[in-house]
Amino acid sequence: MKNQMIAVVSVLGLCATAACGRTSPVSPDAAVAGATAGARSESSNASERAQASVFTAACDITAAVGDFRTALGNLNPNTPGELNGGRREVNWDGVPSGNTNNFTFPGDFFNQNVVGRARGVVFSTDGSGLSVSNDDFSFINLAYGDEFNAFSPVRTFSAIESNTSRVDFFVAGSTTPARSTGFGVVFSDVDQLGSASIKLIGANGESLGVYQAPACGSGFSFVGVKFATPLVAAVEIKSGQGPLGADAADVSDRDHGPARDLVVMDDFIYGEPRSGGQ
User: Fold this and answer.
1) Closest by Cα among 1, 3, 10, 2 to 225
2) How far apart are CA 270 and CA 199, in angstroms?
3) How far is CA 30 from CA 41, 111, 266, in A?
4) If you ran DSSP here, which 8-state letter would residue 110 be given?
5) In Å, how far are 49, 132, 136, 168, 253 from 144, measured between CA atoms?
6) What is the pLDDT of residue 212?
7) Which of 72, 94, 103, 275 counts the most CB atoms within 10 A of its CB?
8) Which pTM does this prediction carry?
9) Rounded distance, CA 41 to CA 24, Å?
10) Which of 44, 248, 98, 275 is nearest to 179 (CA)?
11) Of 222, 209, 206, nearest in space to 263 by CA
């Protein structure tokens, strides 16, 4: 099924699409004050929360991804240093074979001080490692080849022995902490609402909100959040109800169990990391 769902929150909290009149797939807690058109925010700073523009889509996500890219600005070159606005992206497809289909993908691969890799993001996890795959992680479990797909072929990304990962922003190619105007991620095979989400974190460690990706089993889900100014210093990502593994079955795998909703990630899209937050 190729149904498209898009929810947008404006600076004033007004709905910009027809989906705003419905119960949003990214807002399960209707009691949260200020949660409108698809955002469940845990932020204690109401003014920051009010600035959030939220983009979500399930199954047919192309338009929502395009709208989010447009909102962030032009795609910047992958060169060291800080640029004035725009966006950067990681789609994993430039990762060489030596860093593919293993459990040792370097967390700073896309923040090295070289052209092509200088993108201002460092990845980490509370698990045992990070992995990029060109076979939908069937190198871990053969069943995954029928469950996961790449949005921008052919590589995808996952934490190992954990369902959570983290992104920290730096001025591209440096160790200087930075902030971004926003962050979005493409998930693959979100079968159940609540299985995939992003938590945006400010420079002082405060939560800027938790935003859930809508479900699209065997397809793609997208959630992206943009602020008017660079506020986001880090992002915590939940991808699935548990980690991948040789004995870990997805809920769509009816031949094995017990099963949990397993999810992998593809494109990361984010505003240019800025040192001054302006």
Assistant:
1) 10
2) 14
3) 11, 39, 29
4) G
5) 37, 14, 6, 28, 9
6) 98
7) 72
8) 0.84
9) 13
10) 275
11) 222
Tokens describing residue 182 = 């926003």
Picking from 155, 162, 95, 99, the residue whose alpha carbon sits closest to that of residue 128 is 162
CA distance 270 to 235: 11
The SS3 assignment for 234 reads strand
Distance of alpha carbon 250 from alpha carbon 253, whole angstroms: 5
The residue among 128, 73, 126 whose CA lies nearest residue 103 is 128
202-254 per-position pLDDT tens digit: 999 999 999 999 999 999 999 999 999 999 999 999 999 999 999 999 987 76
Distances (CA, A) of 245 to 107, 126, 160, 231: 20, 16, 8, 35
